[in-house]
Design brief:
alpha+beta, three-stranded mixed sheet
Length: about 140
Amino acid sequence: MKTRPGSPGEGPGPPAPAAGLPPPAERGATVIPDRVVARIARQAARTAQSRRAAVPPDRSAAEAPSASAAVRTGSVRLHLALDLPYPADIPHVCERIRHDVAERVAQLTGLRVGEVTLTVRRLVTAAGAKRGRVR
């Protein structure tokens, strides 16, 4: 019985070269614009903020995180700015958010995340907390 190339009866082998196409290394590269990476980072920061800092997803008291990105030769530097709840272990929460955002951006873009800086814009208290003097 004869089999055709690429049929199930034929074992694995090198794929047939694409007719008329240059070698893969010469075809070009996928470029992800800074603003796209920043949007991905902003969404990842929003998710991490609600998960790690116990900020409710409705963001009633806290403003949405902002992000900027600088993509250079396969790696990216991120800058995040967000609100955190008070009281909280600020250094621990920030480290966890940085880690979560870097991991998610790398997973979705394929870029190496070289640096993530985080600015805490403000600390927000629970909306239902009573204000006044403690006796």
